[in-house]
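Bug #77: duplicate submission created two jobs. Keeping one. Sequence:
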Amino acid sequence: MEALRSYDKSEETIGADRSRSAGHRLNPLQGHVLIDNVSIQFGGDKVSPVVKNVTADIPPGQFVCILGPSGCGKSSLLNAVAGLLPIAGGAISVDGVAVRGPSAERGMVFQQHSLFPWKTVLQNVAFGPRMAGKGGAAESIARTFLGLVGLLPFANRYPSTLSGGMQQRVGIARALANYPRVLLMDEPFGALDAQTRLMMQEGLLKIWSEFATTVLFVTHDVDEAVFLADRILVMSAGPGRIVADIAVDMTRPRPGDVVTCPEFLRCKKECLTCIRDQVNASFGGP
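Kept job's structure:
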């Protein structure tokens, strides 16, 4: 409960840190992601196609969720945008620069927290800025982002002493500490209980509204996608293709009870219909 209360109070912390972070805000014209006819395949002698001919044009600052049945290549596509996975065809670029490997300008939050267990929370978040040559400013940057995720009181703790939700919040702070143009999130809340997940979703939207970073967010949860996104890309059963591009026409900020509004229910129904069709196809159904 202490952790939940600290995160609930993060709005106050955001206000206190706004002046410090404003000088590092992203250029609103940065973060344009272009995925152009991309294919991904695994295997050596036996080639297995995972993603096939995917194209998506994501403008700066947009929050995009990627939905689809298991095994459709959602995470593979995200890893390719991160530069962690080679592509077999097509091209990926950010602001006109081809993606050829990992970069601090593309922050990644994984399904599991992937924190350094031997480093404190503060040291984990400061690691990226230190590697980027920020030197003495790295700790100050880390404290700013720990404040934004409501974990400044836990700065000197080790990851093993934190709950799963708190560990993921450290992961988000660590990814944002490099002020990336694009934030890539691979089912970051999938292992959390319903209450913590909702808290994390609302907290993420507060941070996103502060920095307006382009976000690509992979999820299996339709409600989560509709609540978070400006736009939802639905992928087919593998090899994955984009079969629907759904605009979420709801105002922001979005209160918790938005899940009962007509536009939310319309988007949810459209997503569920698309996914059901793809799941049926993967099982050989009609």
